[in-house]
């Protein structure tokens, strides 16, 4: 067992802290919109030390999109706990598969029907769904998997139970 594995589980370290950024300057869903979470240092925001966490990021924080990286992290880096963090005001709440596909078809004259963009309409349910995807995968080790919603407006992090 290495030093990191001997430490408390990551969930014991998560601390709600306020990030004093002005998120209201972002306007998701419009041309000047930015993915807010990209401006966040996840380790620092969650009260973790550098090296305590291997961060895997993607649009919407979707587990199915991150599965390849999770497997590599577990098999090659020794990751033994998974924490899923989605955030409020996520751009993935602002569209559907049909909307993005139509936009691509209209603006790029391409067919993207083979791509799952994975938008969602319920933030907390998306966290529960992602926990379930990883727990059900035979390629993911049986390790603690928990989920949270980071509230960009307040800086709080709220745990989301699997069966809420």
TrEMBL record:
State the source organism's domain of life: Eukaryota
> What single Pfam family name could you report for this chain, choosing any that match?
Pro_CA
First-tier enzyme category under EC: lyase
The reaction(s) catalysed by this protein are:
hydrogencarbonate + H(+) = CO2 + H2O
Q: How is the cofactor bound?
A: Binds 1 zinc ion per subunit.
GO molecular function terms noted in the UniProt entry? carbonate dehydratase activity; zinc ion binding
Q: Which Gene3D superfamilies match?
A: Carbonic anhydrase
For this entry, the protein name equals Carbonic anhydrase
Identify the species of origin: Penicillium freii
